[in-house]
């Protein structure tokens, strides 16, 4: 596989873009692998990449029932941040952020990481207390954060309504936060993994597990049975379905989460803004579209559609914060099925079946976790032990009671 460079781009341009090779092979399944990763989203692909690059395991398959990145990884609003409350969470998400910072170079693939900063706004005294508490926790846990009063927030965020229905009293800025191109993250990891020998098998659904004496022996798929003594499942909103196939239940509820994109405009917004009180967050993509997100549809669902009230709330919140966007037309809307755990902390580790590992529970925030999630999950699959950064995220916290309740602590509701 050829490496990409400024020179290779120029050469391709001069030869009318002929001669590009596919970025990864379309592999057919072999009879057996040293490890199988189910789910070709960011987490599955990153896991395969790190299995090969960090642990020398190259006889690995990623099995994806549709196309890679077609799940939540290609449907999210691309926000990257590490503004959590508990040390376990901040350490993990900050590590992810630092991997993101070097990812384009590591993968030789431009993931368009833009460190444009992320603002969380406070609109009342309770909100201010939450921001101050978050700032103190982040500083103690070693993450970058700045607390600013309302005037400074209005000075720094271009176009923010000076007189909204909910006044902006303060803001928390994480300068290292930002966005990245979501498809590129999936494609970059896929290309990196493929270059190291991993088989990426698309249009292949896992329909069951081969479990012998409580140990995993392989997976059943729409393209036939494949043997492996190590299987990692990274299927986000479908984790409960796969767990059922393996004979256990997970503390996960699946909901639809929507995103909305406007028509493209000239650059007007150079940061990410979240307003919990109005129920919306927004950034502007490199193409110029406003990218909006809001609340979950609060009923369990596997339908990747979403409902109108979430759209109304997000659009209302946007116009309250930026009235000048009221004439901008929304072009597209879609939803993804997210895997929500009640403490809003992921599950990374072994399942009740020996050799069958789980990577799930990312809820509405797992895009930013892809590099660290893949890194730690690869460690668990290769060594059989949780990575120290993810040791607190194992499934047994639901029996021991050692929950990491980010849902209550950092105001990250899902
Ligand atoms: C609208 C929206 C906005 C979001 N915004 C953000 C954000 O701004 N920042 C952030 O950090 N996170 C965000 N998220 C969350 C984030 O997108 C996810 O947490 C993350 O992408 C999960 O990655 P994944 O690889 O685990 O799952 P996915 O990318 O969903 O990959 C799972 C894959 O498993 C496959 N699969 C399922 N069942 C099977 C089967 N039986 N056999 C084989 N394959 C199977 C699916 O087809 C899918 O491709 C958002 C999510 C949504 C929906």
Description:
- There is one protein chain.
- With 414 residues, the chain is an alpha/beta fold.
- It has two domains: 32-79 and 182-252 and 343-409, FAD/NAD(P)-binding domain (3-Layer(bba) Sandwich), CATH 3.50.50; 115-176 and 254-339, D-Amino Acid Oxidase, subunit A, domain 2 (D-Amino Acid Oxidase, Chain A, domain 2), CATH 3.30.9.
- The protein is built from twelve helices and 19 strands.
- The protein has helices at 6-14, 42-55, 87-101, 103-107, 125-140, 150-156, 182-195, 239-246, 308-321, 370-383, 397-400, 406-409; strands at 35-38, 60-63, 79-80, 118-122, 146-149, 170-174, 178-179, 199-201, 206-212, 215-221, 224-227, 231-233, 252-262, 272-275, 280-284, 290-300, 330-341, 347-350, 356-360.
- The strands form four sheets. Strands 5-6-4-14-15-16-13-17 form an eight-stranded mixed sheet. A six-stranded mixed sheet has the order 8-2-1-12-19-18. It has a three-stranded antiparallel sheet with strand order 9-10-11, covered by helices on one side.
- Strand 10 and strand 11 form a beta hairpin.
- The protein is globular, with a radius of gyration of 21 Å.
- It starts with 5 loop residues before the first helix and ends in a 5-residue tail after the last helix.
- Flavin-adenine dinucleotide (FAD) is lined by residues 38-44, 63-66, 70-73, 75-79, 205-206, 234-236, 238, 242, 257-259, 293, 336, 338, 362, 364-368.
């Amino acid at each position: 596989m050829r490496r990409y460079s400024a020179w290779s781009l120029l050469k391709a341009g001069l030869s009318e873009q002929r001669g590009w090779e596919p970025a990864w092979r379309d592999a057919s399944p072999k009879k057996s692998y040293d490890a199988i990763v189910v789910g070709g989203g960011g987490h599955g692909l990153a896991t395969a990449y790190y299995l090969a690059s960090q642990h020398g395991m190259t006889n690995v398959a990623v099995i994806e029932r549709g196309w890679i990145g077609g799940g939540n990884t290609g449907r999210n609003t691309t926000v990257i941040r590490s503004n959590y409350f508990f040390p376990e969470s901040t350490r993990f998400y900050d590590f992810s952020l630092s991997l993101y910072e070097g990812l384009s170079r590591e993968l030789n693939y431009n993931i368009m990481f833009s460190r444009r900063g992320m603002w969380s706004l406070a609109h009342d005294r309770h909100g201010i207390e939450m921001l101050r508490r978050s700032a103190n926790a982040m500083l103690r846990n070693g993450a970058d954060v700045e607390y600013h009063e309302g005037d400074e927030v209005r000075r720094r965020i271009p176009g923010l309504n000076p007189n909204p229905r909910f006044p902006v009293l303060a803001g928390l800025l994480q300068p290292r936060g930002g966005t990245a191109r979501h498809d590129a993250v999936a494609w970059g990891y896929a290309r990196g993994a493929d270059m190291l020998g991993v088989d990426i098998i698309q249009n292949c659904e896992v329909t069951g597990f081969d479990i012998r004496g409580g140990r995993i022996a392989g997976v059943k798929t729409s393209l036939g049975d494949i043997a492996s003594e190590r299987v990692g499942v990274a299927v986000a909103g479908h984790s409960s379905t796969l767990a059922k196939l393996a004979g256990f239940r997970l503390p996960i509820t699946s909901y639809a989460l929507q995103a909305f994109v406007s028509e493209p405009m000239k650059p007007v917004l150079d940061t990410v803004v979240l307003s919990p009180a109005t129920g919306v967050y927004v950034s502007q993509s490199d193409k110029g579209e406003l990218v909006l997100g809001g609340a979950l549809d609060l009923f369990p669902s596997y339908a990747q559609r979403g409902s109108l009230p979430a759209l109304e709330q997000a659009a209302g919140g946007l116009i309250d914060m930026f009235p000048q966007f009221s004439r901008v037309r929304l072009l597209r809307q879609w939803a993804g099925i997210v895997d929500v755990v009640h403490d809003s902390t992921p599950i990374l580790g072994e399942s009740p079946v020996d050799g069958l590992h789980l990577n799930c529970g990312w809820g509405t925030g797992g895009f930013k976790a892809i590099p660290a999630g893949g890194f730690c999950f690869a460690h668990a699959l290769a060594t059989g032990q949780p990575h120290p950064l993810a040791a607190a995220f194992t499934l047994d916290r639901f029996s021991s009671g050692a929950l990491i309740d980010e849902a209550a602590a950092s105001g990250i509701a899902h």
